[in-house]
C-alpha cells in the first residue's frame, strides 16, 4: 500500500473515531464548562496555526503571498464566500507574479 | 419512514450546494499538489470533512510522517465529539448501534447544525436523508475540481498555492469580527505557531506538531479566558 493511500486510510479512521464514539457510547452530557469551551475554540485555533506563517511560503515570492493574504483578509472581512475569496487571492497572486 | 427521509433530504440540499464549490477547490488543490485524481476523490469519499482533510492532504503533499498526519487530523476533528455527543441526546434512544455508527459518519459542522435545530426526535431515515445530499455534493465537487486541475496552465497552478490559506482566512475572519473570543483565540494561535516556526532551536519541530501544540494551547487559553455558558455551545 502506498504512503499516500495509507495516510488517507489513517485520516479516515481518526476522523471517524470522534464522530462515532460519543453517539455510540455516551448517554450522559459533558458537564465541564472548560472542556466544552475548549472544544468550541479548537476550529479557530487550528485554522490560525495552519494558516500563519505557512501562507507566506505558499507562492513563489513573499511579496505575492502577502498580496494574496491581504486580498483574502479584506474580502473575508466583507464576508465574501469561500470560493470568491480563494479565487480572488489566486488571481491577485497570479497577476502579481506576472508584473514582478 | 419514507417521509422522514425526504424531509431530511430537503433539509440537506442547501448544504450540498454549499459544499460543491468548497470541495471543488479541494479537488483543485489536492491534484495541484500532486495527489492523483482518484485519490483526491477517495479522500472526500472516506473523510467527508473540510479542515481535517485539507490539513491532512497538505501534510501528505509535504511527505509528513503518518503519525503526524494522524495526530493533526484527529486534533482538528476533536470538535466532532461535541457534536456527536449532542446528537446522542437527540436521536431515538432505541436506535441500534449499527444505525448510530452509520449516521456518525455524516456528522459535519453543517449537518450537525441542521439536525440540532430539528424539533422532533431524530430518526435513522431523517439522518440518512440529511446526510446523503451533502455527501454527494462533497464527492462530486471534488471530482469536478480534480479533473479541472489537470487541464489548467502551469502558471495558474502555481498561483493556486494560496487558495487553501485564503479559504482558511475566509472561515476565521467573519466569526472573529462578530465576537471577541474567536478573535483572541485566532491571534494566540497565530502567535504560538509563528514562535514555533521561527524561533531558533524550537523551529526544529515538524509542522504537524506545531499545529497541534498551537491548537491545544490557544484553545485552552480561550477556554480559561472566555468560558462559555451551556446555552452558547
How would you explain this protein's 3D organization?
The complex is a heterodimer of chains A (100) and B (233). Chain A is built from 4 helices and no strands. Chain A has 100 residues and is mainly alpha-helical. Chain A has one domain. Chain A is extended. With 233 residues, chain B is mostly helical. Chain B folds into 2 domains: 158 residues, no CATH class; 54 residues. The longest helix of chain B has 31 residues. Chain B starts with a helix and ends in an 8-residue tail after the last helix. Classes of the chains: A mainly alpha (100), B mainly alpha (233). Chains A and B meet through helix 1, helix 2, helix 3 and helix 4 of A and helix 1, helix 2, helix 3, helix 4 and helix 5 of B.
How many strands, which pairing sense, and closed or not: the largest β-sheet of chain A?
A: none
What oligomeric state do these chains adopt? heterodimer
The low-pLDDT segments of chain B are none
The proportion of residues forming helix of chain A, as a percent range, comes to over 70%
Number of strands of chain A: 0
The number of helical segments of chain B is 12
Secondary-structure element order of chain B, N to C: HHHHHHHHHHHH
Write a brief caption for the model.
The complex is a heterodimer of chains A (100) and B (233). Chain A has 100 residues and is mainly α.
Helix/strand layout:
The complex is a heterodimer of chains A (100) and B (233).
Chain A: H1 3-25, H2 33-51, H3 62-77, H4 82-99
Helix pairs in contact in A: 3-4
Chain B: H1 2-32, H2 37-47, H3 51-61, H4 66-77, H5 79-88, H6 97-105, H7 109-117, H8 124-149, H9 154-159, H10 163-178, H11 180-198, H12 207-225
Helix pairs in contact in B: 1-2, 1-8, 2-8, 3-4, 4-12, 5-7, 10-11, 11-12
Features:
heterodimer, A: 100 residues, mainly alpha, 4 helices, 76% helix, 0% strand, B: 233 residues, 2 domains, 12 helices, globular
Amino acid at each position: 500500500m502506498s504512503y499516500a493511500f495509507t495516510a488517507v486510510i489513517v485520516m479516515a479512521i481518526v476522523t471517524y473515531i470522534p464522530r462515532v464514539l460519543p453517539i455510540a457510547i455516551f448517554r450522559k452530557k459533558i458537564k465541564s464548562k472548560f472542556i466544552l469551551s475548549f472544544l468550541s475554540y479548537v476550529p479557530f485555533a487550528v485554522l490560525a496555526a495552519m494558516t500563519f506563517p505557512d501562507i507566506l511560503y505558499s507562492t513563489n515570492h513573499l511579496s505575492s503571498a502577502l498580496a494574496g493574504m491581504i486580498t483574502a483578509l479584506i474580502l473575508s472581512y466583507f464576508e465574501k464566500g469561500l470560493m470568491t475569496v480563494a479565487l480572488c487571492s489566486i488571481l491577485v497572486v497570479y497577476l502579481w507574479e506576472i508584473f514582478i | 419512514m419514507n417521509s422522514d427521509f425526504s424531509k431530511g433530504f430537503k433539509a440537506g440540499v442547501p448544504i450540498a450546494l454549499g459544499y460543491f464549490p468548497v470541495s471543488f477547490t479541494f479537488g483543485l488543490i489536492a491534484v495541484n499538489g500532486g495527489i492523483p485524481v482518484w485519490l483526491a476523490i477517495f479522500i472526500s469519499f472516506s473523510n467527508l470533512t473540510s479542515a481535517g482533510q485539507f490539513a491532512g492532504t497538505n501534510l501528505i503533499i509535504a511527505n509528513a510522517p503518518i503519525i503526524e498526519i494522524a495526530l493533526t487530523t484527529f486534533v482538528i476533528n476533536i470538535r466532532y465529539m461535541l457534536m456527536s455527543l449532542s446528537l446522542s441526546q437527540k436521536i431515538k434512544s432505541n436506535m441500534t448501534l449499527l444505525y448510530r455508527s452509520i449516521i456518525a459518519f455524516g456528522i459535519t459542522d453543517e449537518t450537525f447544525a441542521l439536525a440540532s435545530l430539528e424539533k422532533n426526535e431524530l430518526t435513522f431515515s431523517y439522518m440518512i436523508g440529511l446526510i446523503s445530499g451533502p455527501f454527494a455534493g462533497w464527492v462530486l465537487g471534488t471530482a469536478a475540481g480534480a479533473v479541472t486541475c489537470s487541464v489548467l496552465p502551469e502558471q495558474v497552478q502555481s498561483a493556486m498555492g494560496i487558495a487553501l490559506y485564503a479559504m482558511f482566512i475566509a472561515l476565521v475572519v467573519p466569526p472573529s469580527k462578530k465576537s471577541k473570543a474567536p478573535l483572541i483565540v485566532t491571534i494566540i494561535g497565530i502567535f504560538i505557531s509563528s514562535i514555533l516556526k521561527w524561533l531558533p532551536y524550537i523551529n526544529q519541530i515538524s509542522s504537524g506538531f506545531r499545529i497541534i501544540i498551537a491548537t491545544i494551547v490557544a484553545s485552552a487559553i480561550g477556554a480559561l479566558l472566555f468560558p462559555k455558558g451551556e446555552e452558547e455551545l
